[in-house]
Amino acid sequence: MARQFIIGDIHGAHKALLQCFDKAGFDYENDILVCLGDVVDGWPDIPACIDELLQIKNLILLLGNHDKWALDWVLTGIIDSNWFAQGGKETIAAFEGKMEKKYAEFFKSAKLFHIQNNKLFVHAGINFQIPFEQNNEMNFLWDRSLGQACIDLWYDDKPVQLTVFDEVFIGHTPLLNFGLTYPVHAAEVWMMDTGAGWTGPLSMMDIDSKEIYQSSPTPELYPKHIPRQKKLQLLKK
After folding, report:
1. Which of 38, 108, 136, 152 is within CB 3.0–4.6 Å of 66 for a Cys-Cys bond?
2. Which pairing describes strands 113-116 and 119-122: parallel, antiparallel, or unpaired?
């Protein structure tokens, strides 16, 4: 029987991705993987990450804000200065200045969100104080308000419901910001970005059983590379 998995922000860490797959015994032909986006910008193995994900028969790919920056570069040739400073330089180098068509098509195929069995999967989150249908691309790719509410509730351990969904799975906000390296669950929200793009591990979870599989901290896997030099902070939109 096919299992369903979700994985947090990969950020070019192919070695970490392989560790998660190996620990989970992931079946490329039968299992389902929801990728929460931000495959690019960070560690050097970005093309290898995409090649690995393309081998998965049942892949549900969500667009991350970093992926959107990279796709905009491919489509327009314009290098956003914020993107360049936050991992874009590494992505451009990984593709040697030009992204092949198959990689561009990979990002073009990504969804802004995915809903299945009243479970919401989205890269950044939503503005949960307005009806879901009023959310837009900016919310799906950048909004951290749901993640912040999840963290607040996690600390307070309050049994509340934030959205109309039974479960919500998000990435985007590195839990390293809060001194955490493990997925956080509060209310109906799961936060899956455990900082693989920085100094944390990559995390993957069985959606049904909630069993978690983690890689080594990414700097241990790429000792010759320095993590992106940017102060970890919660960017509030």
Report:
1. 38
2. antiparallel
- Give the pTM: 0.94
Residues 6+ apart with CB under 8 A from 145: 125, 127, 128, 129, 237
Helix axes 46-54, 14-24, angle to 10 degrees: 30
Task: Note the pLDDT tens digit of each residue in 143-180.
Answer: 999 999 999 999 887 778 999 999 999 999 999 999 99
**Out of 1-5, 64-68, 120-124, which region has the weakest mean confidence (pLDDT)?**
1-5
Q: Rg (Cα) of the chain, in Å, rounded? A: 16
Whole-angstrom Cα distance, residue 196 to residue 191? 13
Name the pairing type of β-strands 119-122 and 167-170. parallel
How distant, in Å, are the alpha carbons of 73, 92, 100, 128 from that of 7?
25, 24, 24, 22
- Strands (E) located in the chain: 4-7, 32-35, 58-61, 113-116, 119-122, 167-170, 184-186, 189-191, 203-206, 212-214
Least Cα distance to 154 among 123, 127, 187 occurs for: 187
Collect all residues with Cβ–Cβ distance below 8 Å to 99 and sequence separation of at least 6: 70, 73, 74
Per-residue tokens: 229: 């030099």
Q: Residue 228: its pLDDT value, please?
A: 59
Question: Residue type at 53?
Answer: L
- Cα–Cα dist 74/129, whole Å: 34
Phi/psi of residue 148, nearest 5 degrees: -65, -40
